[in-house]
Amino acid sequence: MKKIYLYGNWKMHMNKAETEKFFIDFKPAYEIYKNDPDLEVGVFAPFTSLWAAAEGAKNNGVIFGAENVYFEPKGAFTGEVSIPMLQEIGVTHIILGHSERRHIFNEPDDMIAKKVKAVLDANIIPVLCYGETLDERESGKTFEVMTRQLKSAISNLKPEEVRKIIYAYEPVWAIGTGKSATSEQAQEVCEWSRNLIADPKVVILYGGSVKGSNAKELLSMKDIDGALVGGASLKPDTFLEIYKAYKN
Ligand code: PGA
User: Is residue 40 predicted with pLDDT exceeding 90?
Assistant: First the structure.
């Protein structure tokens, strides 16, 4: 059995009280998976909930991380949060380049590349998201777009840094729409990504409307190592159901 990464991206949901409640409910639900060596669970929380997430994650032996960060260590960057600030909380993983950052907040490839490098330099694992919009897919640009997104992020890195990154293929048209990519579509891109990254050992997740009902199909694909889950990660039972469905 391959190891499965089940990562939850809470986006702009889950305040402090909701985070605490999540982990109270998570504990008994997670009990049966706790010692499963084939499962790695991670929760990515909004900045203001990270202290509560740190506590909950520690009590349950899961990973926790942030959903974004700025690449400068300090300075006049109103509204931004630095890597040292996140290290103070004990963050070990940070999502970078999520499509909502790229498309709603216009984060360009070169900024994402700087973030990836700064996060790696701090010995934190970047969870690097990439993926095409519906327009790009329909006009046959899927691989061109993803080549640009991936190459700009990794081309100046050392091979051991490239391997440290966790990659998350998230087609924009499948995020929050309820319409996941088919397992064949997701496998095709993840296999292609592994070849482009040129390292057979890298971890590649699929994200976009993953839930209990499509988890087995998606996670059984050869080049998909896990899921980055939005909506279904907000409740412990719908979140863990993804792994349960895969195992059954
Ligand atoms: P979704 O979000 O599971 O709600 O589609 C996935 C993501 O944006 O990471």
Answer: yes
Distance 228 CA to ligand 1 centre (A): 7
- Predicted model pTM: 0.97
- pLDDT of 67-100, one tens digit each? 999 999 999 999 999 999 999 999 999 999 999 9
Contacts with 67 (C-beta within 8 Å, 6 or more apart), sequence order: 9, 10, 11, 44, 45, 46, 47, 94, 95, 98
Count of CA atoms in the C-beta half-sphere (13 A) of 49? 26
- Environment class of 157 (CB within 10 Å of its CB; exposed 0-12, middle 13-18, buried 19+): middle
Q: At what angle do helices 142-154 and 109-121 cross, to 10 degrees?
A: 40
Per residue in 214-237, pLDDT (tens digit) is 999 999 999 999 999 999 999 999
Catalytic option among 67, 93, 98, 100? 98
181: Cβ contacts below 8 Å, ≥ 6 apart: 171, 174, 189, 206, 208
Can 98 be counted among the known catalytic residues? Answer: yes
Question: CB-based contacts of 72: which residues, under 8 Å, 6+ apart?
Answer: 80, 82, 118
Q: What is the DSSP string of 155-174?
A: TTS-HHHHHHSEEEE--GGG
